[in-house]
């Protein structure tokens, strides 16, 4: 199973400040690139737990007694760590978004390059697919999804066009969706707009924003004081949430102040935002929008 090079490999794992006998979690195992680098730095008493709900990731399992792959969504981070008797860990790594492998398997429906059934489920057993979203959501739900998750100002017009088109026949494939929305896809910008449309549907199908929030809140509970959080985001929605959470320990509003008027926050940012070099982007185009943030639990 071909998986591409992980983005910002050294920087992300460096951010964890690996202790040889520590316990770490990679919540986005995928092809195992980040996990293998963590394992390389662990000693004989170290442990790594990895999460991935995609069945294809099972093919990349690391055969090592120190490694455990949990085939579940990382929104259940705390629950499954407790199941394995782990209450606190030294570091958590996440590389969000769609893996190169998922983009490259045409039938998964993630890529704008291929014609495929409307799927886009990261968990292939998930109840809701892109077909359900496109054909069953009402106009208001679709408008909200395109506006919030695709950051498309013409979300209302897109939603209205889909609702009218599906009255004739269900929209079954990615090519059919492109044809329905053809007038919104001028040649010079079609790839960018299509990517935003696909992103919006994919985030909705996989509940990515809710999952990210649930995960970040749980890191506060599972990280030891001094434990590290090292996460890569690929679009502004995710990065804003990560940035706010690291800064305030919450997604909205301001944290409470102590008796001296200082904010009481659970994390301190380590270094500044890290983005890939031009050399890395040239080798791995997927890296172009990656943003890495590292934080330490206070």
Automatic annotation (TrEMBL):
Gene3D superfamilies: Putative methyltransferase TM0872, insert domain, Vaccinia Virus protein VP39. GO terms for molecular function: rRNA (cytosine-N4-)-methyltransferase activity. It catalyses: cytidine(1402) in 16S rRNA + S-adenosyl-L-methionine = N(4)-methylcytidine(1402) in 16S rRNA + S-adenosyl-L-homocysteine + H(+). It comes from the Bacteria. Pfam families: Methyltransf_5 (PF01795). One of its GO terms (cellular component) is cytoplasm. Its EC number is 2.1.1.199. It is found in: Cytoplasm. S-adenosyl-L-methionine binds at residues 32-34, 52, 74, 95, 102. GO terms for biological process: rRNA base methylation. It is an enzyme of class 2 (transferase). Keywords: Cytoplasm, Methyltransferase, rRNA processing, S-adenosyl-L-methionine, Transferase. Specifically methylates the N4 position of cytidine in position 1402 (C1402) of 16S rRNA. Belongs to the methyltransferase superfamily. RsmH family. This is Ribosomal RNA small subunit methyltransferase H. The lineage of its organism: Bacteria, Pseudomonadati, Bacteroidota, Flavobacteriia, Flavobacteriales.
